[in-house]
Amino acid sequence: PADVIAFKQKRDACERWMDEEGTDADRKKEIADGISENCTGTDAALAALKEKHAGEIDVQRALAQYDSDIE
Q1: In 3-state terms, what secondary structure has residue 13?
Q2: Distance between CA atoms of 50 and 33, rounded to whole angstroms?
Q3: Helix 57-64 to helix 42-52 angle, to the nearest 10 degrees?
Q4: pTM attached to this predicted model
Q5: How far apart are CA 35 and CA 37, in angstroms?
Q6: Which of 29, 33, 35, 51 is deepest in the core (most CB within 10 A)?
């Protein structure tokens, strides 16, 4: 479903930003902005998608790879 694809794209970007290391103030700000833009609200979105698609095994498998508490 489109909502799950959109979530996965945003959450994957979030996780990439969280793996980054800031070497100077500018880079640290860029990383903080990336995390804020891509991570905020994803814990709630994940929970909502799991509930919305509760009967869809493939969707549940796709969402199972994500930690429910990343924020």
Answers
A1: helix
A2: 27
A3: 160
A4: 0.90
A5: 5
A6: 35
